[in-house]
Amino acid sequence: MADTPKHLLIIEDEAPLRTAIAEQLSDHGYRVEQAESGEVALSKLADFAFDIIITDLRLPGVDGSAVVEAAVERYPHIIAIVVTGYGTVKDAVEAIKRGAYDFVNKPFQIDELLHVLDSALEQRRLKTENAYLRAQLEERHRFEGIIGKSQPMERLFHLLETVASTNSTILITGETGTGKEVVAQAIHHNSLRRMHRFVALNCNAIPETLLEAELFGHVRGAFTGAIGNRQGRLEQAHKGTLLLDEVGTMSGALQMKLLRVLQEREFERVGDSHTIKVDVRVIAATNSDLGRLVAAGQFREDLFYRLNVIPVQLPPLRERKDDIPLLVHHFLEKFEAARATRPGAKPSERLTVSQEGMRLLMAYHWPGNVRQLENAIERAVAFTAGRSQIDIGDLPVEIQPAKEATLSSIVTLPEDGVDLAALVAKIEQELIQRSLERTRGNKGQAARLLKLKRTTLVEKLKRFSRRNH
Ligand SMILES: Nc1ncnc2c1ncn2[C@@H]1O[C@H](COP(=O)(O)OP(=O)(O)OP(=O)(O)O)[C@@H](O)[C@H]1O
Ligand SMILES: [Mg+2]
Questions:
Q1: Cα angle value 193/194/199 (rounded, 5°)
Q2: Ligand 1 site: residues with CB under 6 angstroms?
Q3: Residue segments in the chain with a per-residue pLDDT below the cut of 50
Q4: Each residue's pLDDT tens digit, 409-448
Q5: Which residues, 6 or more positions from 463, have their beta carbon under 8 angstroms from its beta carbon?
Q6: Whose CA is nearest to atom 23 of ligand 1?
Q7: 179, 183, 177: which is closest to 369 by C-alpha?
Q8: CB within 8 A of 305, min separation 6: which ones?
Q9: Torsion over CA of 116, 121, 123 and 126, rounded to 10 degrees?
Q10: What is the distance between the alpha carbons of residues 28 and 51, in angstroms, rounded to a whole number?
Q11: For residue 275, which phi and psi values (nearest 5 degrees)?
């Protein structure tokens, strides 16, 4: 049998049979407990996490199936085996549906039962091993969750590898959408703190008065609305990591309190005098230039130095354009997977982006950085319904080459004036025709290209055909 002795509960109302099985299983190394009824079994299960239960199906009171169901619900990895009397195969099937692993028919030889137990234990071992491997893969994937191979990103990975396992405070700066939160999470998951919580607090999203209570917690009656005692984020992150997002927006008073936490690792809940000690790694993030805020007197210099122990700067996407194809591919996979699970989705070929589409994606300056790119791809995937290639028509208008610049060159006002309504109508018709060509006649997509409702587009088409006949 396997290394550690397995704890087994046997549930059988016939005492002689029960003790006989119990003794034989004990001889084979199992730690056996007995229960004479379903009720007794349930109360034993409530107190102890058995590895295995063997239960008779027909029991007075709570029957075997119900015991199996309760046991499996409480301990998903428990092995439940049912013992069936003559003519109760149907009940055994029912028990298996409720989570039993297997059944043995009465009367049985002990070897038969031992064999069933062996194979159940072996299966469970494989299952846990697989789960472990999968978890390890996911763990690694999480670090790879930061996509990038450009030089600045390579440098970032290198830096993260060395700092993740330390306890140092880190200050992440970068424009909106550059991945500050993703990086903070990666640091946490690659540190020894990964078994504990990663807690994020966006200092900009909460009014100043509430922010303090959110961070430090509060006691009952500390302020209007403070109904009970509450743990703050700092306490929640004990032994883990706390991300203070948009740290540049904190008030002076709060900055000072935060400084104390960083220096002493202690604080009080709002309205309380009791000092709480915590072990928290702080990661701060900001999209403003803290150095400039310090110079302008809006951010405490001492706090800045405390936070900026290890500065991590995330470059804007436009400064690492060679990451764009990789990111596009990553997001395509992500949103395709979501699409494939939708009802009625056909197993389509891999989605790709046309060469022209990729050129556009790489030429754009992405003020919203990776988040904006992610949104653009999500939208494009939704638009390509059925097609296997994302085309420029599927990409958001803001990334299309600026039309305003060329507009003035095609719009001229002749000496003797124009018929404005007729000219505008002509331009309208031309644009509608082109959008239909590009979308190969798909009116829904054409309407979207023009930011029109489909019905509006159809109306206009009808009007054109009337005008032209
Ligand atoms: N390098 C990357 N690889 C993969 N996904 C990324 C990467 N960077 C950012 N993302 C994705 O972009 C989105 C925005 O990232 P995140 O929230 O970390 O940005 P942020 O810098 O915290 O933005 P903000 O300043 O607006 O809070 C997320 O959906 C994230 O998964
Ligand atoms: Mg963020």
A1: 85
A2: 146-148, 174, 176-182, 287, 330, 370-371, 374
A3: 1-2, 137, 139-142
A4: 566 777 788 888 888 888 898 889 888 888 888 999 999 9
A5: none
A6: 177
A7: 177
A8: none
A9: -160
A10: 15
A11: -90, 135
